Amino acid sequence: MPLSVLYCGICSLPCEYCEFSASRKKCEQWLRENHSAEHARLYSDQALEEKMAMTTLSEDKVAKEAAKMEKAMSKEEARIERELEKKLASKVVIKRVERNKRKRITTVTGLEVFGVDIKKTAKFFANHFACGGSIAKNPQGQDEIVVQGDFANEIMQLIQKNHSSVPSENIEIVDEVKKPKKGAAEAGAPAS
User: Fold this and answer.
1) 94-121 pLDDT tens trace
2) Residue 131: CB partners within 8 Å, gap ≥ 6?
């Protein structure tokens, strides 16, 4: 008969190993709410006493291990908080770039911060607008979606509709116009 293993909904480890995870308190709370019998088996006073009887560490080592675990948990919580702040502070920039006279491309950067798969999104844009769409590196080294044509407003609406993880206030449309060359401006000027 195959062995059935219960995995934690928070850290995705087997529930017996949640005590070694950085999010131990959240794991214990999840187990208490969703599988109370398993929680009683692992975290009841009797189970904790049995675990303590099996340990061979001295009390000062136990205290050091507990302090280490607390430090790891606080680091993990701080990391999660930093990621959330980064996500809230980052912007999705949709740029209209003029290639030559009347041709334009639209570039989208910053979607990967919000957990959007940019390869799938680029393909979706290309299919939706029936034009060329690809992923390229911009001068800052970030991946950006490049769509042939001026679709900035439509792309903004599609992002808001299909990717609810991206807040509307974090989407920004920018027009980037190339400056005309000196020689071309003088050649096009009428002679007086």
Assistant:
1) 888 888 778 888 999 888 888 888 899 8
2) 147, 148, 149, 151
